[in-house]
C-alpha cells in the first residue's frame, strides 16, 4: 500500500529536522469541558503499525482525558522550526487506558509503555499532575523495575487523522488533504492546492 | 504598577530564547464553527501598551475570524525550545478589523500595521487564503506604498489573558496563575504551585 501524500511529507519533515530534539514535539488542541479550547505540547510516539494514526502518551490523571471522553475531536499543530513547515492534523482520538476491554489495544498500550525510557515511565508514578504541590512534599525516590508493565496512570492516545493542512513557508505552498469515505472502498484522501 | 509574575517569566523566556527566530511563534487554539478545535502557528506582535494583553495579526479572510466571532475563547501554547519552558495562556480575543467603531482601537490597528515590515504588509494583498489555487494563476507583483495605511484584510487580534499555566521542564516546576475580579479592585492574579 502506498504511503498517503501528507504522511510522506511528514516523514520527510521529521527526517530533515531530526537533528533538533524538539522536532518530535507538537501542540495538541482539544475542547475543554466548559467548551473552551485547551492547548498543550506533547511528544510524537510514532505511527500506529502501518497506518497513518498518530500515537501520543499521556497521564490518565490529566485534564485532557476528561475533555477527550466528552468530545474526542482534536487538532495537532506541528511546526518544524528548521524546514519552516506546518502540519495541522485534525482527527478523533481513541483513549486506551488500563481499563480498555480490547486485548489488542491493551497490547498496543503495553508496547508503547516499553518503548519509553525508564525515566519517562517513572514519571507516571509521580504525584497527581495539576494538583497543588505542598512545599513540604518531598520528591520520593522512584525506582521502577524495567520489566514492570504499564502502570494505571499510563495512557495511550491514538489520533486518526481525517483532515490535514500542510503549509511550507519556504516555498509558500499550501496543500489540504481530506478523507473521502465510501461504502465500497477504504478511506481515501483528496488533495487540493490552496492559497497560503 | 508591578509586572505580573507570569508576564515577567514570559519576558525572561523571550530574552533567553531571542537568538531563535521561531521564539516569537506560538500555537493558537480556538473552537471551530462545528465545535471542533482548530490550532495554528501565529506570531507574537508584542503586548498592548503597558498591559499584559497579547497582540496577534491575521488576515480577516481567515477561518479563525469566523470562529472567534462565534466563540471568542482561545488558548495559546507557547513552547520555548531552548529554555524548555511552556506557557499556556487562556483568554478571550477582541477582533479589531477596519469596520471597528472605536477610534482608539482603529489607531491600535494602524500602529500594528506600520510595525510590520513592508513585505509582511504585502501579504494582505494576496489571494484569499485557504481558497483553491488555480495553477494558471500568476503571482501578481504587489507593490505597496510604505505610507499606505492598513488594508481591508488586515486584522489585529488582542487576547486578554485570564489563566496562565507555566511549566519549566529543566527545573520541573509548574505554576498556575488565575485572575480574580472583584468590584472593588482591578484584575489581580493568584499564583499556585502545582505538580508538573
From TrEMBL, chains A, B:
Enzyme Commission code: 1.4.3.5
GO BP field: pyridoxine biosynthetic process
Database matches in InterPro entries: Pyridox_Oxase, Pyridox_Oxase_Alr4036_FMN-bd, Split_barrel_FMN-bd
SUPFAM superfamilies: FMN-binding split barrel
Pfam family, one: Pyridox_oxase_2
Assigned keywords, A-Z: Flavoprotein, FMN, Oxidoreductase
Cofactor requirement: FMN
Pathway field: Cofactor metabolism; pyridoxal 5'-phosphate salvage; pyridoxal 5'-phosphate from pyridoxamine 5'-phosphate: step 1/1; Cofactor metabolism; pyridoxal 5'-phosphate salvage; pyridoxal 5'-phosphate from pyridoxine 5'-phosphate: step 1/1
GO molecular function ontology, one term from the record: pyridoxamine phosphate oxidase activity
Superkingdom of origin: Eukaryota
Domain called Pyridoxamine 5'-phosphate oxidase Alr4036 family FMN-binding: residue spans: 5-96
Designated name of the protein: pyridoxal 5'-phosphate synthase
Organism expressing this protein natively: Arachis duranensis (Wild peanut)
Lineage: Eukaryota, Viridiplantae, Streptophyta, Embryophyta, Tracheophyta
Annotated gene: LOC107463601
